[in-house]
Amino acid sequence: MPSITAPSKVLVTGANGFIATHIVKVLLETGYFVRGTVRDDTKGDYLKKLFNDDKFEYVVMNDIAKPGAFDDAIKDVDAALHTAASLKPELGDPANLINDVVLSTTGILESAKQVGSNVQRVIFTGTTASVYQPPQGKYIFTEKDWNEAAPKAVEQQGAAASPLVKYAAAKVSAERAAWEWIKTNKNSVKFDIVTICPPLVYGPMIHKLEGQQDVNMSNRYFLMNLKAPRTEEQIAKKEGSYIDVRDLAKIHVDLLSKEKAANERFIASA
Question: H-type helices in 126-231, by residue range?
Answer without folding.
Answer: 149-157, 163-185, 217-227
